[in-house]
Structure formats: structure tokens, C-alpha cells
Amino acid sequence: MLKVTCINCGNKYQVKDELAGKTLKCPQCGMAIRAAEAEKGPADEAALRAEILRLAGSKPGQKPPGEAAAEALPREKAAEPAKKARPKSPVKPGKGAKEQPSEPEDEERPATHVGTARRDYTALVIGVFVVMAIALGGFLFWMRYQAHQRDVENERKAQAAAIKKDYEQVCKVDPACREADAIKAWDAVREKAEGFERAYGGGVFVEIITESGRRAQTLQTALDKRQEDVKRMQDLLLTGKRKLERSDYAGAKKDLEAAVSVVAEQKCPNEGAVKVRDEAKQMLAMDAIVYGSKGWVLYKDKWVTPQQFEDLKRLAEIEEMKAKGLVEFETDKGATEWVTPEEKERRLAERRQKREHALWLEAQRAKVTEQIAEGMEEVVIDPGTEHMRWQAEAWANPAQLSIQEQGENKEKFVAAKLEAGDKDKWVISIDQRSSVVGYERLKIYLCASTPVKVALGVWTMPGFELFESPAQIIPLGCQDVTFDLSGQTFKCRTSNWQHNSNITNAEATYKFSLFIYGRADTAISLRNLRLEGPKKPPAEPEGKEPAGEKKEGDAVAPKKEPPREKAAEPAAGKKEEPAAEK
Predict the structure, then answer these.
(1) Each residue of 126-135: b (16+ CB within 10 Å) or e?
(2) Tell me, what CATH number does 523's domain have?
(3) Is the separation of the CB atoms in 398 and 421 below 8 Å?
(4) Residues 367, 398: one domain?
(5) Does one domain contain both 345 and 466?
(6) Is the pLDDT of residue 511 over 90?
(7) 352: domain range?
(8) How confident is the model over 129-170, as pLDDT tens digits?
(9) Residue 113 has what pLDDT?
(10) Contacts of 433 (CB under 8 A, 6+ apart)
(11) ∠ at Cα 174 (170, 180), nearest 5°?
(12) What's the rounded Cα separation, in Å, for the pair 125 and 119?
């Protein structure tokens, strides 16, 4: 077994021989002990003592200060610290060490106060140095902090002064015509002020930030409006060009003038607006805009007034037509047509015939009206031998009418050529304002190639009322057809188209019609339409001489034509069509 003594606390231990040369831990104080320092005799103890003195800073043979003082005390009292230093409670040995039995209390132990004093002194020195270092570090940190704070304050004041200076400079600058640069300047001031507030706080530049944002927004709005104005000018210019291509000169002028007016409203138009304005002014100076907007017309590369254009066009047309050998002819409607001389003569002849026919027709109507007014028992409405008075109604099947010579004697008849249609009848009429009051019959000489049914229609005013007689079957050949006017055998709208009515307003008759019910291949000829009856002239008032007697010497008054009965004419070009029969 090897003996090992702790150089710190002085406790002795026995360890196994195989632990020689290894480092062990003192169970009492935890000091590291090498097993090589095992005690093998007095020589080793003397060597150990010399090592302790060396570590304590004493020379060999010289006792340590603590040990010399201890020898001056009585031996009993010097032994008490050693006894008190020994722990009474067992301590677990380190790994590989065996716990040893306690030594006798009266055994002498080496003094251990030298190491303790050395450690206390070193710790004190180290503590003093540490405190001084901490104090010096704190002082240096405080000085550095104060310098930093001064630098921060100086930087804050410099930034605040720079922001105020920039703000004042921007406020002095007139942003007109330089909105983009002014917006950048206000944004820069706002960004600096916001950065200052983020770094230092305090709300010093809140008003400047708000004002900068408001100014920048106002300038941006003005800049956007200017750009919108340029876009609108470009659109107006493009629209004006398109209208000019369509020869809408007035519209093109309006759009171009609007584009120029937009630029005039701006204090300082930009390059795009000036370019559009100059182009619009150039277009406004064109002859097409100047004269075309006034309504002038371009004729042979020359702008002339509308009247001059019509005159020039008329002259050119006359020259062109004359070169073709044509002559002018004025139609009944006042229009001018260019026709050959032969065509002009033919149309003039037709016009004369129509005029003569109109005069004859008027005279014939007046003659019939006069005869009816005189109360003649037989009044020929239309002989059917001279001029055509009949016409086909458009609301019935179509029919072609003409005056033709028939028979061996070449007698003239009104011939009706019935054409196929989707109606069940053909209607031909003759206009004659008259009165059938007092006449019992209306007769007409009629020829038919096949048996047909015919009926008489009498039209009266007011209201264009139609009264239709019962239909009569006309056999093959020619004969007089008689229609009774006095009986209640007519049908009309008021009688619900039943044959139980007489002719109302017979004194205001204005048209007679012949209803033909048959086939389209039937040939109809007619003539000598007349009224018959016992009608007598009106009685003369008492006290007056008969109309035929006159005294000798009396002046003969000129014969006056009886006034024609006034009745409302049907609308021009409008054919009367009776309501559908029930």
C-alpha cells in the first residue's frame, strides 16, 4: 500500500500500489494529489517539506512566518487548530482511493495556513484590479455614451435644419408648368421628414409631412389633367380628320376648334399639346374647312356657293343635253325632264287631251246638275260615247276600261276587261254630284258575253255612305238594266248590310257604282247611264209670273248656271271602300 498526503489540508491516505503515478482527488478538500508522492520514509517527507516552502516563497531551512508564530504558542494551543481542521465526519474517497481510519488526535500534522493566506492575498489583488477595471470601463463607456449622444443631437439638429431649409425652398418655387419637378421636390421633403420622425420621433415635422403630401397630390392632379387634355386633343384631331374624309366639313371644323380651345385654356402647354394645336390650326386653314363648313360645294376644283353650284350644274347639263339633241320638258308636277323633240310633242298632245277631257267632264257634270235642277224626267248622266268617265275601284278586282266601237254600226261603248283577282267582285264608278230625289229609276244599257250579276251602288254625303241595291242576273246579250231607287231594298252599314233600307241623303249623291259579280273572262260593255222618273220642276211661289212668261220690254236676264251642291270630296288619291258585307 502507498501512503499519500494532501499538500493542502494535510490529510493522509493509503492507496493501492497500482495507482502509483496517477492523479487522485483529496476526499476532504478536493485537492489533486499524485500517487507518486507516496510517503516511503523520512527522506520523502523532508523533500515534501522543502517543496511546500518553495511554493510558499521561503528559503530552505527558513520557517514560514505562520509556522514560527505557531511555535511561540504553547504546544496545546498550537495543536487545537490542527484538531479543529480535521473533520469528524467521514469523507468519501476519490475514484480508486480507499477510505482510511481516522488518525489519532495526538498525531502531529503540518501547518496549512500558508496556502490559505496566499490565496486570500491573490484574490484580494485580483478583486482590486477587477473593481478598478470595471470602474475604468464604466467611466470610458459613460464618456463614449456622452460623446455619442452629443453626436446624435448634432445630427438631429443638422437634419432638422436641412429639412426646414428644403421646405422653405420648395415653398418659394412656383410649380406652374413644372409640376413633375415640384412633385419630386415635395416627395423628397416628405421622405426626409418621415425618416426624421422614424429616427427621432417627437412629431416635429408632422405638419410638414401632411403639407408635402397635400401639395404633391394637388400637383399630381393638375399633371394628370394636363395629360388628359392632351389625350382629348388627340382624339378631337383624329375625329376631325375622319369627318374631313367623309366631307363633313362643319363637323371637322367644330372638332378642330375644340382641340385648339383646349390648348388655349392651359397656361403652359407641353410639347404634345403644342404639336396637336399646330396641326389643328393647319387643318383649319384648309379651303375644304373654310368654305366647306359654310356649305359651299367643290365644283371642278373650285369652291362655289350652293346657288352658284346649281347654276353651273344646270348650265353644264343644258350644254350636255343639247349636245345629245334633247330638249327640256316640264312635267305637270313642275319637274324638268330632257326628252327628244318627238317625245315632247307627244306629251304636249296628251296634256292638251287631258285638259280638253277635264273641260268636257266639267261641262258634262254641270250639264247633268243643271238638268236635275230643272226637274227633267230623264237625265243622261253618261252617254259613254265620247270621253271616258268611268274608273275601276282599287279595292275590288282590277279591270281595264276603254271606249270601243262595237257591232256593225260601229257604236261606241265603254268596254270593261275584267282581270283575275282575290276579290269576289269588280266595281267601276262614275263621279257625279247630283240629287236623285224624285227619280224612281236608274237605267243603263249593258252587254255581257256570259250571264253575270250586277248591282247598283249609290254614294251619298256626308260620311261617304254606300247604298247597294239587290243584284240582278243579266243574261247573255244586250239589254237595258233598271234599278229601282224609291224602294227600301238597299243595304248599307246602318242596316247591317241587309236589304231593308232606302237611300238616305239622296239629295247629296256624289257617285254611282256598278258592282259586277261574275268570271274574269266575261266581256262587259255599257253605255247610256240615265235617271228616269216623274220628277217635276219645283212650284213657283205665289204672286210671281211663270218662269217662261215675260212682259214686253223686259230685259232678258242672263241665264245663270245653278250652283253645284257642295259636298266634301274624298281625299286625293284615296278610294272609298265599303265595309265588308255581313
Answers:
(1) eeeeeeeeee
(2) 2.60.120.260
(3) yes
(4) no
(5) no
(6) yes
(7) 325-373
(8) 999 999 999 999 999 999 988 888 898 889 889 988 888 888
(9) 52
(10) 365, 369, 509, 510, 564, 565, 567
(11) 75
(12) 10
